[in-house]
Amino acid sequence: MKIYRVLVLLIVVVWMSPAFADHEPMKAQCPQKRQTPKAPTEFVQQVNPLPLTARRIEKGKLIYQSQSSPLQCKHCHGLRGDGTGHLGLEALPPARNFACSETMHNISDGQMFWAIKHGIPGTAMPAYSDLADWQIWVLIHYIRQWGS
Ligand code: HEC
Predict the structure, then answer these.
(1) Which has the closest alpha carbon to 133: 39, 49, 25, 71?
(2) pLDDT digits 0-9 by tens, 12-23
């Protein structure tokens, strides 16, 4: 009886092992193919008007991780901005990987502002029209500190 139990356990463990292999940390693509259209010119040319300070990055972090509604940015763009949020990797197209400087260095502050304020049609990226302009600019400071 005991041997039988050990055998069953062994079979289960062997059967499960490929599933363990699947638990490798998942990665978003870099460089990433962007499906976001180009923002109107008056947005694209804008540069973040708020000087970069540690307090502003802290505030941006708070909004990104817990205060943005209806859905916090982290759920798609990931806790570390690398695009590995549980909804972000599965979205089609997947959420932007802010840690990928190859893609991010081509995206202007104003382009990001437009995407956050109005959302991106045809993608999972929602509009955050309730955020005040300064909240969006501190979010952009926070996003940029991931190497973009
Ligand atoms: C439900 C998932 C989801 C949430 C929540 C979300 N995003 Fe996105 N985001 C996306 C997707 C999808 C894209 C578009 C990817 C593409 O164009 O290929 C995107 C793109 C972006 C871009 C890039 C725009 C560009 O021009 O390339 C920025 C900046 C951005 N999101 C910021 C944010 C911020 C800040 C928040 C929170 C306030 C947020 N996102 C919340 C899914 C999400």
Answers:
(1) 49
(2) 555 555 555 444
Which atom, in ligand 1's list, is nearest to the CA of 71? 5
Dihedral sign from CA coordinates of 147, 47, 127, 121: negative
Go through the chain and tell me how many residues it has: 148
85-100 burial, b at 16+ Cβ within 10 Å, e below that, comes to beebbeeebbbbbbbb
Atom of ligand 1 nearest to the CA of 112: 29
Q: Which residue has the tokens 């139990």?
A: 5
**Distance between CA 79 and CA 65 in Å, rounded?**
7
Residue 34 token pair:
């962007």
Q: How far is CA 9 from CA 13, 16, 19, 73, in A?
A: 6, 11, 16, 41
Nearest residue CA, atom 32 of ligand 1? 116
Q: pLDDT tens for residues 54-98?
A: 999 999 999 999 999 989 999 999 999 999 999 999 999 999 999
